[in-house]
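Friendly challenge for the regulars: who can give me the structure tokens for this chain first? No prize, just bragging rights.
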Amino acid sequence: MTKRIKIIIFISIAALLTLSFVKRQVKSYEVNISSTKHLEVGEELTYVVSFSFIKLGEIKIIVRNKRIINGKTYYNTIAYMDSYSGIPFVNLHMIYESTLNPDYYSAFFRGIVKKEEYTTFTEYRFDYDKNNVRIKKGKVQPYELWTDSTGTIDKQYEDGLSILYFARMFSGSGKSISVPCFVNEKESYTTINSYTRVTGVSIDAVKYDIACVRIDGEMKFISVFGLTGYFEGWFSNDEAAVPILAKMKVIVGNVRIELKSWKRPGWTPPRYNKS
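First reply, four minutes later:
Bragging rights claimed.
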């Protein structure tokens, strides 16, 4: 497997951080979603990323804390994406941070990519009251600012991490939606189709089938290293809506992202009963 192919495959861990797809009629845009699901501060979910039988690395996503501002709840979240050591030609380490507003859209995003030579960062700070987004890009150690600009926006957006949490709240609704995304300093859309049918999903970390609801969708843009197109995912059929399994396509084939371990007080994966 060539270096380029391995990088393309592993970078698709952004799969967890982007969602969509379709041939159903969808609403073009809506902000508020009604959901009985909720996030838990301190929740920590770890996933294994694999291509065929090759385990490439792990993703860890954490709900760090929440703040109440003017009676509204904002969650601070973070995702660590790391390749395993010892895999030839692959040494990838990325961090995504996102602040979710009360509608589960992005209030702030920071993406950090650690390279051999230096570490880069990208920041989006959304001010929906003033209809603008501030964009900063550069590198750290030593710090160097490459871009510092402000653009006009007319709607709320998802970033590469916040969209995962939006999808969790949206799962099981039986609806479809086209969600505005702000990626690579551009507006695009991701279509998410949510289904109500409960199915059993098997993963290595749990000895029984987990009761899940499915989503699928289509990414309407090309992300890093050609990540685009169809994907599907399964969320636990309970108020936690924990992502259990995701499958998506990259240029060279299919990538599987599977829940390995979790820390969420009082949560146990719900058992699937066929009857």
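The longest strand covers residues 54-69. The first helix runs from residue 3 to 11. Your move, everyone else.
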